[in-house]
Specification:
Elements (H helix, E strand, L loop, with lengths): L1 H4 L2 H15 L3 H37 L5 H11 L3 H5 L11 H8 L10 H6 L8 H12 L6 H22 L2
Length: 171
């Protein structure tokens, strides 16, 4: 009579366990098989993730030129003169020397961790400021330097954070 007073789901689970124990412990064996299958699945997923990371690193090492959107990301993240660069018409008629370009894409002394600039610069762009703030933070750690790896590193970090969120969601 006690089994009938339990919730149906719990009762059915308990009855299935009792029945499998009568049949020679098949329930425990099935759990072990699922554990092995779960480990195989995790191993396959880890291998896939490692291939994705290696692919991103390979592309990063092969990269020799920058797309204009990448330059804009560095500019909007780091420059207090971003509005000058946003007016791209002058770029068609004027050569930018190295010093001027550095001022437009790198964090200058006195501007490290100045989040007002990337916040203000987002008014020139349609994208939200999170990536610009992240790029500005990394570039502030390495002022006066311009490297593709600063942006690629952030992208890989966001990729790994996304994977962690997805794995937490499906547990």
């Amino acid at each position: 009579g006690v089994l009938w007073k339990m919730s149906e789901g719990y009762r059915d689970k308990l009855l299935n366990i009792k029945m499998s124990e009568k049949l020679g412990g098949g329930y425990r064996k099935k759990q072990k098989i699922n554990g092995i299958q779960d480990r195989k699945l995790v191993t396959v997923l880890v291998i896939i993730i490692l291939f994705q990371i290696m692919g991103a690193l390979f592309v990063g090492f092969q990269k020799q030129e920058y797309h204009i959107d990448e330059i804009y990301s560095y500019n909007f993240s780091n420059s207090v003169k971003a509005e000058k660069f946003a007016e791209a018409d002058w770029l068609k008629t004027k050569w930018i020397d190295g010093n001027e370009f550095d001022e437009l894409v790198t964090v200058q002394e006195g501007e490290r961790f100045n989040y007002a600039a990337p916040y203000r610069n987002t008014s020139l762009d349609a994208h939200p400021p999170l990536y610009y703030w992240a790029l500005h933070t990394v570039c502030s750690i390495f002022p006066d330097s311009f490297s593709k790896w600063l942006g690629i590193g952030i992208n890989l970090l966001f990729f790994l954070l996304l994977l962690k969120c997805l794995s937490s969601l499906f547990r």
